Amino acid sequence: MIEFKNVKKVYADGTEAIKDFSLSVNKGEIVTLIGPSGCGKTTSMKMVNRLIEPTAGEIYINDKNINDYNIHELRWNIGYVLQEIALFPHLTIEENISIVPEMKKWKKKKIRERGKELLEMVGLDPSTYKNRMPSELSGGQQQRIGVIRALAADPDIILMDEPFSALDPISREQLQTDIRKLQKEIKKTILFVTHDMDEAMALGDRVCLMKDGEIIQVDTPQNLILQP
Ligand code: ADP
Ligand code: ADP
C-alpha cells in the first residue's frame, strides 16, 4: 500500500504545490487523482518514487518509510507509466519489456515467459509483436507496451500519470478496459492521475478530488455521484 501522511511540498521558488496531503491507497486498490492542471497531481506522484523530495510529512510503502528503502529497491518496486509514450526507440518490444527484469537479474527464460504472458494480457500476439520496433506500432499499442513494461518486474505499486492523454478516444477506452481487466488478475496498488472526470470515475475504486494542492474529497465513484 501507499500512505501519504501530512505531506507538503514547497518548490524552491516558493510555489506551495502540496499543502496538507494525507491519503492511503490500499493493496489491490486503484485510486484516481483528479483535479485541474497545476493542482499538484504530478508532484504528489513523483514524491512516491523520490523524484521529488517532500518539504514536510512522510510517505510509506508497505508500512516502511520510503526514505528507509535503498533507492533502487524502491524504484524497482514501483512501475511508472508516463503521459508521453516513452519506449526506447532502438529496442524491440521484447527488449523494452525486459529492461527492469534484466536489472533485477531474472533468468532469461523467466523474462521471456513474462513478456509473452504480458503481451497476451493486453491482446497483442507475442509471436507477431515481440520483435517489432516501437515505431512499427500504433500510438495505442505503444502505450499498451508502456503499461505492461511498468508491470514487467512485478512491482507492488503502479503510478500512472495521464497515460492515455495522447490517445484518440477509442484507444483510450480500449486501454481503460485493459487496465480494469489487468487489475482483476494482478491486484496491484495503483495511483492514477487524470484530469478527465469520466476516466477517474470509470477506473477508480476511489476517486480523490484535488484543488490548489489540497484534497477536497475522497470517495467511491458511487458516493461521489450521490453527493452533488
Ligand atoms: P498537476 O500535475 O496537477 O498539473 P503539478 O504537480 O505539476 O500539478 O504542479 C503543481 C504546482 O506546482 C503548479 O503550480 C506548478 O506550476 C508548480 N510546479 C511544478 N513543478 C515545479 C517546479 N519544479 N518548480 C516550481 N513550481 C513547480
Ligand atoms: P503537468 O501539468 O502535466 O504535470 P507541467 O507542464 O505542469 O506538467 O510540468 C512539466 C514539467 O515542468 C514538470 O517536470 C514540472 O515539475 C515542471 N514545472 C511545472 N511548473 C513549473 C514551474 N512553475 N517552475 C519550474 N518547473 C515547473
UniProtKB/TrEMBL annotation:
GO molecular function: ABC-type quaternary ammonium compound transporting activity; ATP binding; ATP hydrolysis activity
EC main group: translocase
Catalytic activity field: a quaternary ammonium(out) + ATP + H2O = a quaternary ammonium(in) + ADP + phosphate + H(+)
Known EC number: 7.6.2.9
Domain ABC transporter per the UniProt entry, residue ranges: 2-228
Top-level taxonomic group: Bacteria
Keywords: ATP-binding, Nucleotide-binding, Transport
Family from the record: Belongs to the ABC transporter superfamily.
Subunit structure: The complex is composed of two ATP-binding proteins (OpuCA), two transmembrane proteins (OpuCB and OpuCD) and a solute-binding protein (OpuCC).
Name of the molecule in the record: Carnitine transport ATP-binding protein OpuCA
Covered residues, full protein: 1 to 228 of 355
